[in-house]
What we know:
Blueprint: H1 2-19, H2 23-34, H3 39-45, H4 52-91, H5 110-124, E1 128-129, E2 135-137, H6 138-141, E3 160-163, E4 167-169, H7 175-184, E5 190-199, E6 211-221, H8 226-241, E7 247-254, E8 257-266, E9 283-292, H9 294-299, E10 308-315, H10 316-324, H11 337-340
Parallel strand pairs: 1-5
Antiparallel strand pairs: 2-4, 3-4, 5-6, 6-10, 7-8, 8-9, 9-10
The chain binds 3,4-dihydroxyphenylalanine.
The site of 3,4-dihydroxyphenylalanine has 11 residues, from β9 and β10.
Amino acid sequence: MKNDKIEDIKKLLEEDKKNIKDIKMLDEFKIKYLGKKGFITELNSEIKNIQPEDKKTFGQAVNELRKIVTDFYEEQKEKYENEILNERLKNEAIDISLPATKISIGSPNILEKLIEEVEEVFISMGYDVVDGPEIEEDKYNFEMLNIPKGHPARDAQDTFYIEGEEILLRSQTSPVQVRTMLKGHGEIPIRVICPGKTYRRDDDDATHSHQFMQIEGLLVDKNISLSDLKGTIDVIVKKLFGKDIETRFRPSYYQFTEPSVEVDISCFNCNGDGCNICKHTGWITVAGAGIVHPNVLRMSGYEPKEWSGFAFGFGAERLAMLKYDIDDCRVFYNTDLREVKIFDRWESE
Length: 349
Ligand code: DAH
């Protein structure tokens, strides 16, 4: 009688096997026979009621049934899993011949990049990077830089005045020299650079902008001479334009330096032979500079008999235009993404 039951289950099982269509049905099949209340599990628990002489045959028959189910299950499971995997691979197939989707990411404005590069060089020489207000007092922008009221040197700067004659948009970063020296209380050596925005009533064109950036530098210490200035400028221009670049000083005039110089660098484009960039002179002017005027030192609390210093002012846009071969300074302030795209070119540098 027991064996009949086994036979019945076997028949049913063979029937069930034929109807399985997916992995879910396969799992249900396994539970139906081998689960806690499965047919085979139940058969197994009946073994205790079997006559001792029949136990062995019964046990073997049950084991055989179990083996049929497990073998079938394992084999089918692998088959279904492969099918699922193949289906997924088919759907996720990557066509490597398709053009890649371009990912647009932003890149820093190259003017900013240039300024950071200059900052790094000066920081490595022990300079601090400082800043000052863009809305400035006449006192710092002019008077304490040895440019008294009514002095013709003021005219050259086409200043934007905000309130009367006292409050203005700084026309140069040089007032930060004064502010830094006042903080130093005439006591400590100073080494700072100050990159920052400046403003002048200029008409905007390819080489002029009413807002532009300068990079001011100031060093105050003992026994400072023009050769210290030249050595320092040399380091930065070589870093920016290449190690073969030479520096030349031409006499100039600024109220706050004496002597004053114009800093030229040898043309990196033609090596002095003459080209459009250097206007066929072989030299390019990149900064104004000089030895800090005794009046400026004194007004800011540094006794000129004891202290001396140099100062310089680079035009940041000019440096960036030269370095990155840009012929219109307005591009730095352009917010049209299609045009700003040109900055991406230097992103990997
Ligand atoms: N402030 C000057 C200008 O805007 C540039 C300059 C010249 C800065 C000489 C300096 C300097 O510090 O020493 O034209």
